[in-house]
Amino acid sequence: MKPRMLALAACLAAALPLFPLPVQAAEPEPATPAAWSAWGGTVGLNLYPDLIGDLGLSIERRSDVLPARSARLTDGLGVRQSQTVELFALRSTASIAFRAERGTLAGFSGGSVQARGGYVFTLPDGQQLDLTDFRLQPNPGDPRKLDVAGSDGTVWFTIDNLMYELVKDNRVLAVYTADMRASAALAARVGRPALAGHPVGDVEILAEIYSQGSGGVYDPQGTGGHWHGEQVAGQPAGTVYQADLFMLDINVTRMRQSAATGPEGSGRVVFAPDSTLKNNVNNGTAQPTVSGQGALGTSAALWTARIPWYGKFSGNFAPYNNDQHPFLIWNMYRINADGGIEQIGRSGVKHAWLTTNFGCAPGENISGQILGRSCSDTYSTFNNDANQDLSFRSEIIPATGQWGRCGSLFDPGCVGSNTNWTPPDDQYGRRLVVNEEQISATRHPGATFLFDSWYLAREDINIYNSMASVTGTPTYSGTNWSFANQANYRLGSVTDRWVEGAPAGTTVANTELAVSEGHAKVAVRVVDLGDGRWTYHYAVHNLDFARAVTEGSEPNLRVVSNKGFNGFSVPLQAGAVVSANRFSDGDLDAGNDWTFSTAGNRLSWTAPAGGSLDWGTLYLFSVTVDAPPSAGSSQLGVAQAGTPAAFDVAVPVPGARPDAIFDSGFE
């Protein structure tokens, strides 16, 4: 793969129906020696009706949309092409200039490109906004962004979070996806200035590079791959590189909703994050990779391993002789007023497919398929919502970072190639979907909410700095939901912040299960009700535990099953009275709830046939007992047969009742 630049010369509607690109009508001015220039090609736009609707906009009409399956400059290259955009041509009468350094875009530096065709929008006041033949031009405040300007020069949208690459021997600038956002001028025009920066859709730009400048070559990989477990040259034997990927930032957007009417409704709402990652910065000494995050912000790996980032079915590459890449998931949680925590929404699996490698250490920007030391990348909201990259958690062995692509959604026939590029999509499957009932402040007074996002990288030595969460408030305004007031970014598991945020006087614990098959946490808040009863809220968080059953081997591994736990129990003293119990698996379907029992002096919850608490998932088990907490141990039953059949995890459990001695007949 070649270096990729963000030459967004092709970003929003244009007409060049024939390819190769049309004959140049006018020779552009020569570029400076260091500059690159691009023009022509296509731009694809996918505007989300719900999101432009937040601004009070609707599309009145389109012009010069290219036919479906029109030729693109990346045809035949085996690279990603958006399956959902409307294509327009980009004119070849003007060009946009950009600079490159070490194979990476250093910024746009001048010029503009013009689309042929575009959209006419209806504004909230009934007037029209004409973006026919709009221009893409460098943003004056950030050279890595583009502005979308109308014929009068007003900037109505901006474009950021570009995923880009130079392909076809550096003759094509491929911006595979980018985010399009409302400008300050547009937000003011519709009377909603707070919506400046509001996302409205994603963009694909494929432009011809007609002038190549300097800086278009990646850093050489050098001897060895710096892969996990590889000996560090010049260091004592046994000193090896180690993988440790960090989550750097999260920002959550409501993507769409169906039949939503507000806090008293029962419609569906989809949320997705921007998720920014960063590879470990260490090169022999420990330095913070993410500041302000305490010990989790600094890696224990003193020598940073590079991380493979190969798109699915792109070939078999070192170090695992497959198409290894990270995976991404995200979840939403509600902390109820009574202290219990519920995971109310969870996504499918996002397959990572490219890294743009910004901020790399010297010599570490190797390619778009390798994340080097200190390199960062952002998987944007629309990228994370792309149907062609979303699969099922059941296909992953999370603790080892292996994908069972044989028999997967994308290769159901196990032929070793992607035979299902565009799976059937109702825009809700494999997304994080919550019901309005679950996020309603009126139905859950006093509740607070968390949203987390995780990257899974193979052989990552610390899963906890690859996940992070933010607080936020589901808010219904006008006719749309949002996740408002996002703040308090923090690395680590949500159970960490749940127990640490417990009110004073609450008994808490958060115990890790760490075995070769993965990790889980059993966390508890014990609330003294003040009447001789205590409520125990047990949150069992399966982070990456799975007892996998597989067939074959990589690269065409099949994951037959990857089940987690199917039972949870804690001891119960004889004579203790249970006055209430509750189970939550985060959905509103009582038919798949676990059954509760007090038989055998244990408080037990058992999954229905075929059910299990699988990786990336948190279940809540609550019980009210007339017994105070004491030291004890819970038990997690494993759904898949094997050894051991269960794991003991130390947590506070109901102890002896205060009057137990009198129950024995003594005074």
Whole-number mean pLDDT: 93
Strand content: 35-45%
What order do the strands of the largest sheet run in, or round the barrel if closed? 1-3-6-9-10-11-12-13
Q: What percentage of residues falls in helices of 4 or more residues?
A: under 10%
Q: Strand count, sense and closure of the main sheet?
A: 8 strands, antiparallel, barrel
Shape: globular
Rg for CA atoms: 27 Å
The low-confidence runs, each spanning 5 or more residues with pLDDT under 50, are 1-33, 661-667
Strand count? 40
SS content category: mainly beta
Number of helices: 6
Distance between the termini: 82 Å
Descriptive notes:
- The chain has 667 residues and is mainly beta.
- 5% of the residues lie in helices and 42% in strands.
- It has an eight-stranded antiparallel barrel with strand order 1-3-6-9-10-11-12-13.
Question: What's this model, at a glance?
Answer:
It is built from six helices and 40 strands. The chain is mainly beta and 667 residues long.
Secondary structure: elements and pairs:
Elements: E1 35-47, H1 49-54, E2 58-63, E3 86-90, E4 96-101, E5 104-111, E6 113-116, E7 118-122, E8 128-132, E9 135-139, E10 142-149, E11 155-167, E12 172-182, H2 184-189, E13 199-211, E14 245-258, E15 268-279, E16 307-308, E17 327-335, E18 341-346, E19 349-351, E20 370-371, E21 376-379, H3 381-384, E22 390-391, E23 396-397, E24 402-403, E25 432-435, H4 436-439, E26 448-456, E27 467-477, E28 480-491, H5 494-500, E29 507-515, E30 518-528, E31 534-542, E32 549-551, E33 558-561, E34 565-571, E35 578-584, E36 595-597, E37 602-606, E38 617-625, E39 629-638, E40 646-654, H6 660-663
Antiparallel strand pairs: 1-3, 1-4, 1-13, 2-7, 3-6, 4-5, 6-9, 7-8, 9-10, 10-11, 11-12, 12-13, 14-15, 15-21, 15-25, 16-20, 17-18, 17-19, 17-26, 19-22, 23-24, 26-27, 27-28, 29-30, 30-31, 31-38, 32-33, 34-37, 34-39, 35-38, 36-37, 39-40
